[in-house]
Amino acid sequence: MLLEIVLLFLAGVFGGVLNSVAGGGSFITFPALLGAGVAPISANATNTFASCAGYLSGVFALRQELAAHRAELPRLIGVSLLGGIAGAWLLLQTPEAVFREAIPWLLLFATVLFIYGGQINLRLRALSAGHRHASAAGAVALAGLLLAVCVYGGFFNAGLGIITLSYLALAGHTNINAMNGLKLLVSTAVSLIAIGLFIANGAIAWYEGTIVLAGTLVGGYGAAHVSRSLPQQHVRRFVIVASIAITGYFFFATYFIATPQGA
Fold this sequence. Notes:
With about 260 residues, the chain is mainly α. The protein has one domain. It is built from eleven helices and no strands. It has helices spanning about 1-20, 25-35, 40-60, 65, 75-95, 95-130, 135-155, 160-170, 175-200, 205-225, 230-255. The chain is globular, with a radius of gyration of 18 Å. The model is unreliable at about 260-263 (pLDDT under 50).
């Protein structure tokens, strides 16, 4: 019992540090919850709960950058809430065995986004620079894309920030600080509405989730003080290696070890 508490807390600390410095904390916290015996769907819901505090604190830290975009905030929040609750509902309707088999593919998608997200965002920002005045059809398409991004975030939290940055780049944003603030606002809205539905359905493992949450708060706070001395590229390489290894493990465990019933 004590060992489980320590491991969950350390996973939270490590995840909080990674989220603050380079992103990718869910590659640590989500498997840790699964390793503690939390059922896959509950582990996913609990991971969303444990990650939300970091989003909230980030929004507060970047409130001045967000104030410069106050006109578009109601639309962003409204679409985020709609997509988040739709994604969370889809998760709760998914059979446990089906979601267990989907975990490796979701992790693979998030891993690819983490590795290539920066390059994708650069290309999208270059593309959007030549199309600043979007047509009405383009605006509708962008709203649909944001909705799809938020549905994904409500269903599976890992990689949400990277996809949101890609959407913002396509929407014509170029200020990285403002983009980070908007990204965190979208992540907060998606997570909060999803957490509300998860709570209503009893999907959150409160004991394990609270331990991880405490760890993420400690890790995020500590990272704020040491981030200047941490080479971001080295941390990023570690996350890439860890995410590939974890994704590979889940593919092996799901398709080579699991029983036909997916247990």
